[in-house]
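Entry:
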Amino acid sequence: MQNLTDPRVIHALLAKNGAALKKALGQNFLIDPSVCPAMAEEAGIGANTCALEIGPGVGVLTVELAKRAKKVLAFEVDRALLPVLDETLAEFSNVTVRNEDVLKADLAAVLKTEAAGLDVVVCANLPYYITSPVLMKLLESRLPIRTITVMVQKEAAERLCAAVGTRESGAVTVAVAYYARAERLFGVGRNSFLPPPKVDSEVIRLTVREKPPVDVSDEARFFRVVRAAFGQRRKTAENSLSAGLGLPKETVGAALDACGLARSVRAEKLTLADFAALSEALN
């Protein structure tokens, strides 16, 4: 088997198949041989697991997933990499590569067909520019996924895994906490990639909840309140909610009063329970 973490091998594979690194697709290939085995282990893959990968690149993580999983389902949007993957994954009969944008794919239908009867986990080195959209699609779609183990930009890891109600939290923090339990696993330096990005990365794991930790009568309204509250972080939640929801300040203030919250509170200080209560009070 070729050493897919050797830059010379990567360049040779790309040149042989007429492919090239595409900055627009956020392509940074891993060249640290310790990272992908560790990611695959942290994903909790078993003999009856379907591992869903997004952006396999030249297949360095895919190989580790294929060694452990019953089936690997990889989404690669770059058609030029398909012949590369045909070569690097030739010895594995349990890998299916789909030349499809995961953000446009009907994942529920795909998993129903491709992963019937299997335990599904996600394990991927996500391109930085689609981190939040991909994670939110995976969570909001309520797919039959047990865990999501992904490498993301370090700053994104800090925000995604922050505790709700702390300075580091944001709207995406609240959304992730609503759907999953998030944890930071280990860091990956920028020099672990070809080409090296300008920032460091981290591997995180989201364990999908069977049910949200708070009850809300209208999830769409709940998330509108969350987004509006963080829409103007430097302002009080009263001002942000008023502007973001198009409501009179007095209406928002009364809702804050009803929830036992100070009118001067900022969004970053609100807990999941606070947001749930506010979304009901603002009904």
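Residues 219-281 form a domain with the Helicase, Ruva Protein; domain 3 fold (CATH 1.10.8.100).
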